[in-house]
Amino acid sequence: MGKRPGLVIIAPWLALWLAACGNPAVAGPASASGVNKTNAKGPAQMATTEQDIAVVQRALAQELQVAATDVKVRPVSVTVPGITVFTASVNPGKAGRHVTRTGIVEGGAIYTETDAMARVARAWHYDARRPVPPVTVAQVFGTLHSATAESSAFIDDDTVQTYKKVSGPKRAAAAAMPTETTVDGRPAVVYCLTSSARGTPFSVVTAIVKPDGKIELRAQPVLED
Fold this sequence. Notes:
The chain is α+β, with helices and mostly antiparallel strands and 225 residues long.
């Protein structure tokens, strides 16, 4: 599979999101607590995260014609300077169907998929020095893999070992923790991804960080016979 373009261009619902949160004054830079460590938040940081949550609630409420209180937004517990990584869902009884959205809020605007990943990588100053561990990269990129499907990377060994026990032989053999690698001289992270998207419930993804900060995803679905 080649690079997945962000939905910022092709998805009508995202146009509504951008229109709903196009005023940069709505939210400033935000960050959540880091993975596997506790970071105390000051009042300003907490307030900004709440503002970013409100941006997502308003945008999704406008898209689906529901109340903002019907939208549940969950910030991902990871530190990205100036960015809130989120997953969101809507009360199915109000939306009429199950709705999932993932993305980031940066400067009061919403971004998704590889566009969002690139902004995260630039915020981390991710390069050959690899300033962020592969587990953290996999956690964020796994969440952002699809703007409209629930997806996640394996980021702890207990999950990997459990999956090996309950899955078929090919997927069991492929299941592993995130690792760093190099592709064409560029830093990359390899991780296992599960997704609610039909046809690709389990894939091994290689995320390549290019010199311009853009992200190329090479996903290899693992299918059982």
